Amino acid sequence: MRRCWMHYFMGNEAQSWKLKAEGSKLKARTLKPKLETRNNKTNTLNISYMKKLSVMILLFLAACSTKQSNTSNSSNSGIDTSFSTAGKQVVVYTTAENTHDRLTITDTLHFSPFGQPQESQPCIFVDPAHTFQTVLGIGGAITDAAAETFYLLPKNEQEEILKAYYDPAKGIGYTLARTNINSCDFSSESYTYVSNDDTSLSTFSIKHDEKYRIPLIKAAAGETGGKLTIFASPWSPPAWMKDNDNMLHGGHLLPKYYQTWANYFVKFIQAYKNEGVNIWGVTVQNEPMASQTWESCIYTAQEEKDFVKSALGPTFWEDGLKDKKIIIWDHNRGLMYQRASTVLNDPEAAKYVWGVGFHWYVDDNFSNVERVHEAFPQTHLLFTEGCNYPFNLDSIYVWHWGEKYGESMIHDFNNGAVGWCDWNILLNQRGGPNHVGNYCFAPVHADTTTGKLYFMNSYYYIGHFSKFIRPGAKRISSSSDTDSLLTTAFVNPDGKLAVIVMNLTNERLPYYLWIKGQAAQAISLPHSIQSLVIE
Predict the structure, then answer these.
(1) Of 24, 214, 233, 292, whose CB has the highest number of CB atoms within 10 Å?
(2) Prediction pTM value
């Protein structure tokens, strides 16, 4: 049993005074009374003892009370149990197959006492007392293909797209964007920003990007009120910096150009800043284990670590860009732990790294995200690319395209991701432009000959997260007692809770939203996703 120090102090002190008092009484019994002054001294001693004992008892009670309070607080360190459902309602937004519901308000629910659920009663349990990672943002990539498509559309459609993506009230409130350094497959041609063999980078120019891409980035940022977080990724260094002398088909960055390539990153960030675009961070290399028919470059884990440790990190710090975030890996979940651990287990490399980026291609491997989060809890995890493919306009409304997004986002956030960035925000009626014919789906497609816009269900599935989970939100504990419903939940900076519930089955599933002994009854439609906003 734990006791406070005052307990022991009081016990010893009281015992000491008790012995003194008993000694005085013994003397009084065995010796004849002396002078009256001795009796007075004894009385004074007893009175003094009683006063001191009373004071010490009060101190003892106060100390033990404080100790009990501190013990209670320490056992709940970081836990805020103040949330109450009293006076709150649940607004339900739904997107569902075979309905017209697309981020549609379908119900308003109220809590009532519920107590202990039975195992036969499907529940989504939410516990706001436990908070986890803070959200950076949710969004998509503004590539050359997206920008070129955008500026081939009539002004009304351009405005519709901007509001649909970036207006938090009328659209889905994107706050995160990725863009490319040099060309990528979703460019109309291959290009760099310097002339061949210009190791001094004196010819560096982003004139190519000033035509379409930078104007679209600035328009998107304007729609968010200047709250768009932008990171950039290279698909390949210039051909002359690589061992295969080609921007395409993989190849490796030559070590003798590590410093030149690091300087290239700095030039890009500074040039974009001069055009009014703030680059928040960079990934080291898009998909560094993929040798593709388009722009690509191979880094082993050791090579990536060496480049960050010896060139990119020190150069950022020396050139006043210490605040720019460096993200490693930027490839699939499969090798994520091996790549992260190789870099992050080296403190001299890890000190430059803000986070680990990852994609969804090949296998799901959701648990690998959690493994990295467990081993390196201070390192941020960011989903940096995903899309459905190959493109076929005839299957643009097939329902499972959106479900791929919903399932991935729920798992990734539950496993520790701080943000989620889709691939192209916009592509044309062919799934491009793409200079090597690698046509893919985007949440929004546009027919550049007619101006018609196609909103895939993936747009709405992403919107169930981006519209209601805002930057600065914290993930809170949520769980489902049925395999048929997936869930994640967040508390926003304004105090509103956003609970995501997704149904991958063909069944209509009633369930309870349960918080601290109060529950609201809801219904999940077949192949649907819901955002339940508690306000």
Answers:
(1) 233
(2) 0.86
